[in-house]
Amino acid sequence: MNRRLWLTRIVKGFTLTGAGFIAYPFFRALIPVGGNDASLEVKVDDLKPGQSKIVHWRGRDLVVQKRSAQMISTIEEGDIDLKDPASAKSSQPGFAENQYRSLRPEIFVTYNLCTHLGCQVTESTDSRLGFSCPCHQSDYDLSGRVVSGAAAPTNLEIPNYRFISGNTLLLEQIDT
Ligand code: FES
Question: Whole-model pTM above 0.85?
Fold first, then answer.
């Protein structure tokens, strides 16, 4: 191999490697964190009371929230007029058919898609409420239960999950 050809191959090699390093973060950002597995472990020890985080799982976003004592008291006071207070018409596992709509009162897990037309809800600025939909202003309480008079027909959907340790829960797909 002559010297010129050898140098050309070295330069091409460096160029391809550099392009790979530049492109990797871009393509990595397109891959949802959390993936598409049938189950996903989620740690909650990084959350302080009142904080929440978004988890991506199987193409959808979920809110994982650590409730503060004040939030739990607000739910227990139950003075908001709700469309489906007992979640009889809403979608959740059996363990979430309670006022907290969760396994443990202090940890709340919900899909964050409005049950009207599927817009992403955001955390409410009203401390008595949990979530609000920016599309047609449906409000949900701190347990994701829709407030009476809202366009949304049912409460936010709750996924199936269980705790596998004190601070780790496992989201699991239910076979239908
Ligand atoms: Fe949320 Fe219409 S999509 S209120």
Answer: no
pLDDT in tens, 105-146: 999 999 999 999 999 999 999 999 999 999 999 999 999 999
Tell me, using a 6 A CB cutoff, whether residue 116 lines ligand 1: yes
Whether residues 89 and 159 share a domain: the answer is yes
Cβ atoms of 82 and 129 within 8 Å: the answer is no
CA of 123 to the centre of ligand 1 (A): 14
Number of domains in the chain: 2
91 with 22, same domain?
Answer: no
If asked whether residues 63 and 5 sit together in one domain, one would say: no
Q: In 31-162, which ranges are continuous DSSP H helix?
A: 69-77
Ligand 1 contact via 133 beta carbon (within 6 Å): yes
Neighbours of 68 (CB within 10 A): 16
Q: Is the CB of 114 under 6 A from ligand 1?
A: yes
CA distance 49 to 51: 6
